[in-house]
């Protein structure tokens, strides 16, 4: 079992898609996800679009804070492509980001975007285990 100070970190990003930008947003998201699937450190990325409410929810799972920093380094052009068509409405972090990641998230909070960081109480992830043990 993972303890409260180790293990994966999950990001949940809720975005409001700009009026008239749904198709462009979806295409930008698909490009970004295709890039990180090949080059990114994420263990999982999953994006859901609620077309009726023009909201998108992005879930990204990272092994640790180092992986988050690597994602930020690699993916900036793709993130900008997505944010041209939406505004972040809320950003939630689940797990134990280190101080540097918390500092990296701070500008978002300072700009008025609700940001929460919730620590782990208990949990496990089968796909994080050594595949030889499965």
Which helices and strands occur, and which strands form pairs?
Layout: E1 9-17, H1 22-39, E2 44-50, E3 55-62, H2 65-83, E4 86-94, H3 99-110, E5 115-118
Parallel strand pairs: 4-5
Antiparallel strand pairs: 1-3, 1-4, 2-3
Walkthrough of the structure:
The longest helix has 19 residues. By secondary structure, the protein is an alpha+beta fold. α1 packs antiparallel against α2.
Share in helix: 25-40%
How many helix segments? 3
Mean pLDDT: 90
Beginning-to-end CA distance, first to last residue: 15 Å
**What is the global morphology?**
globular
The radius of gyration computed from the alpha-carbon positions, rounded to a whole number of angstroms, is 15 Å
Could you spell the SSE succession in H and E letters?
EHEEHEHE
Helix-strand category? alpha+beta
Number of strand segments: 5
Strand content: 25-35%
The poorly predicted ranges are none
Oligomeric status: single chain
Major sheet:
5 strands, mixed
Strands in their spatial order, largest beta sheet: 2-3-1-4-5
